[in-house]
Amino acid sequence: ALAVLSYGGGAIEHPADAKLLEMSVAMLREPARADDDPLRSWAIKVVEKKSGVSFTDPQRAALLKRAAGGR
Known about the structure:
mainly alpha
């Protein structure tokens, strides 16, 4: 499961930033669809920027193509 809502080390300075991070994580928890690559790419960038977490290339690829029921 993707859990990155630990604000301690990230760059969360405003409630809007926290909301963007929350929305992005929610998007990435959902199964990927054929037409949502741009949205998932955006969500990954938001998580990386706002949480301070940097994904590896394999992790990023897995998040982009997350299958139904994947963890």
